[in-house]
Design brief:
heterodimer; A: mainly alpha; ABC transporter involved in vitamin B12 uptake, BtuC; two-stranded antiparallel ribbon; 4 strands; about 70% helix; B: mainly alpha; 2 strands
Chain lengths: ~290, ~375
């Protein structure tokens, strides 16, 4: 029982990070129809910004905020300078561009900061809470992870639902031509969408780095699982991304705990994804699509 | 031999283009090429074989081994360009299929009395084709990013099998592959041709080159056949293809099988060249590198796949050397290679979206059309 609870709790925390990352991918997919493989590298770069500031003696929270802001700027710059030129072109070309960015950013950080493992501070304790004499796997830091992701999701929902900017962004994603005719600055909305997604991605990167080690490739597995989670839920659905992330996080935690350790985790992700896609080729939360001409 | 794509025809709706083929055919046929596609491709293979022998004999052993590396990348990339360029299915999982071919080869070669090499390669191709059929059946219903996601999970998940079955597949350490020894006639043949000593490296480079030529010959014929045309129909308009009586599912599976067969052969060549089949050789990076190679070279073109693979092999070496020469230390120089590769990808996609071969072909066709127009109006 104790093991089950511990597994569930760690799976939940893990799933929350997957969900945040998947959400970042979905935000970009909905607005520009591009799967951003560079998301992980961008988040990694901002984590290294935070690390450099912490090493320079800054307060953790100040570094945290600066990292998120730098993520916002990085996302906006990448969209405006590079992605804008391949938007609307062949699908595969945009994929290759994000792959190129993924490789280039990762190598650039490795050149600047070195590729050794560096420990990243955690804002809260890493020792589990004690309930009735038993120490459970829920640490203050994990509570922070879960709360931070939930708050971010709440803010995003509020943004899209209750503000004019959110409405304009939804319009730009829904139908560019129509939105433009109604006076929405579509280009600016796309840039904003990328910037917001980069912030959410950076948040996932910072959360997963807390109390652990960072190195230029530390986000690679998160890209894979985040993407799998997004596909699992259906790339067009933000709720799907969250559900997909949680399902994947919990499933992988159970597989790792009960079926032969970490070597089969990737295999389990493959099996889960294939089974879901065989039943629903558009993901769990796919909306029924009109037949293409 | 590599002219696989139908796109890039002269702009339609132009009054001059209708007359252009007739007037240009008399000019371009200065070199008499055989009418039959098969004969033309055979001729091309012959020329390429001679070129390969010359290239392998004038270069040193280090370049020989680099060319062997090029051959297995190019074999797998050729299969992928048929799948993605001709049939329009993206795959981020071809590295895993290469792993299947490599592990099959390693297991067959570890027998006490190993089978002859061609038979082992054939076995690797057959096994990988079966896996490809399985993956293809699952993939035939998926589109775009969903297919990308599923194949991505394949690339990351499948090598995990090697960790699960430690006894037979060697776990993290991988499977040591006993590279087959060069037969005696090979040494004599090399001595007769160039007088160079025949090393094991050279033998493997020749095996790779032969496998590459056979693969590209078969692929080039395949894509010019009815099968290739059907794939293009499925890619360009699946509804119209279905109305014309094409069963989309089975043709998509067939494309995946053919592509997987090539990946299997590539993996088999990799196994004997690297002499190791280990999970660390078949990471996601390999799958992504193959995809970038075919898009960079020119999607759907075998020549493009070859050029893209060459970039993959030679560019990192070149940049590392340049970095060292410019005074960077070892680790910085090593990281310079992926940095330059990433930047090349981004820049190439922005300024040459059709890839290397595609862009040159478009330029050439545009110039030809312009000339035809000029001639027409001058008349």
């Amino acid at each position: 029982m104790q093991q089950f609870i511990d597994t569930t709790l760690s799976g939940l925390a893990q799933g929350m990070v997957f969900a945040a990352f998947a959400l970042a991918l979905v935000l970009i997919w909905r607005s520009t129809r591009i799967v951003n493989f560079a998301q992980g590298s961008m988040a990694m770069a901002t984590t290294f910004v935070a690390l450099a500031l912490v090493h320079a003696g800054w307060n953790y929270w100040l570094a945290f905020v600066v990292a998120l802001v730098s993520g916002f700027v990085l996302g906006a710059v990448v969209e405006r300078v590079i992605i804008r030129r391949v938007e609307g072109g062949p699908e595969l070309n945009a994929v290759i561009v994000t792959l190129g960015l993924f490789v280039a950013i990762q190598a650039a950080v490795a050149i600047i900061a070195g590729s050794s493992f560096q420990s990243f501070p955690a804002p809260f304790g890493l020792r589990g809470f004690t309930i009735g004499g038993n120490t459970i796997a829920l640490t203050p830091n994990r509570v922070f992870v879960i709360v931070a992701v939930l708050v971010t999701m709440g803010l995003l929902v509020a943004l899209f639902r209750f503000t004019r900017v959110g409405l304009a962004m939804r319009a730009a994603a829904f139908g560019q031509e129509v939105a433009r005719l109604l006076g929405v600055r579509v280009g600016r909305m796309l840039t904003l969408g990328w910037a917001l997604a980069a912030v959410v991605g950076s948040l996932a990167g910072l959360l997963i780095a807390g109390g652990s080690f960072v190195y230029p490739a530390y986000m690679d597995s998160l890209i894979v699982f985040g993407f799998v989670a997004a596909v699992l839920g259906g790339l067009d659905s933000p709720i799907g991304a969250v559900v997909g992330g949680l399902v994947l996080g919990l499933a992988l935690a159970y597989v790792s705990a009960y079926f032969g350790g970490s070597s089969v985790v990737n295999l389990a992700a493959l099996v889960i994804l294939v089974v879901v896609l065989l039943v629903r080729p558009g993901g769990l939360f796919a909306s029924t699509q009109a037949r293409r001409a | 031999m590599s002219d696989l794509q139908t796109q890039g025809q002269p702009p339609a709706g132009n009054p001059a283009t209708a007359a252009a083929p007739a007037s240009t055919s008399s000019r371009t046929s200065r070199i008499p090429l055989p009418e039959s596609t098969l004969l033309r491709h055979l001729l091309a293979v012959l020329v390429c074989a001679v070129a390969a022998v010359v290239l392998l004999e004038i270069t040193d052993p280090f370049r020989n081994s680099q060319l062997a590396t090029l051959s297995y990348y190019a074999i797998a990339a050729g299969g992928l360009t048929v799948l993605t360029g001709l049939n329009g299915q993206i795959s981020l999982g071809h590295g895993a299929l290469m792993a299947v071919g490599a592990y099959t080869t390693g297991l067959f070669l570890s027998a006490d009395e190993p089978l002859p090499l061609p038979l082992i390669f054939l076995a690797a191709v057959v096994v990988t084709s079966l896996v490809g059929a399985l993956v293809g059946a699952a993939a035939s219903r998926l589109h775009g990013p969903y297919l990308a996601g599923a194949t991505l999970a394949l690339a990351v998940g499948l090598p995990g099998l090697a960790l699960k079955f430690k006894e037979t597949l060697g776990g993290d350490q991988g499977l040591r592959v006993r590279a087959p020894r060069a037969p005696d006639w090979f040494g004599e043949a090399i001595k007769a041709v160039s007088g160079n000593p025949a090393s094991a490296t050279k033998w493997l480079a020749y095996v790779g080159a032969i496998a590459l030529l056979i693969t590209y010959f078969l692929l080039a014929n395949l894509v010019r056949s009815r099968i290739g045309r059907t794939w293009r129909a499925v890619r360009d308009n699946d509804v119209a293809a279905e109305l014309a009586g094409i069963r989309l599912g089975s043709w998509r599976v067939l494309a995946f099988v053919v592509s997987a067969a090539c990946a299997g052969l590539g993996g088999a060549v990799l196994a004997i060249v690297v002499r190791l089949a280990a999970p660390s050789a078949f990471t996601l990076v390999l799958s992504l590198a193959l995809l970038t190679a075919i898009v960079l070279g020119g999607l759907g073109s075998l020549l493009g796949a070859l050029i893209g693979s060459a970039l993959l092999v030679f560019l990192p070496q070149l940049t590392t050397d340049l970095g060292s020469a410019a005074g960077l230390d070892g680790t910085e120089a090593a990281q310079l290679a992926p940095f330059v590769y990433g930047v090349v990808l981004v820049v190439a996609m922005i300024f040459a979206p059709a890839g290397f071969v595609g862009t040159i072909r478009l330029r050439w066709l545009a110039r030809r059309a312009k000339r035809a127009i000029a001639r027409e109006s001058g008349r």
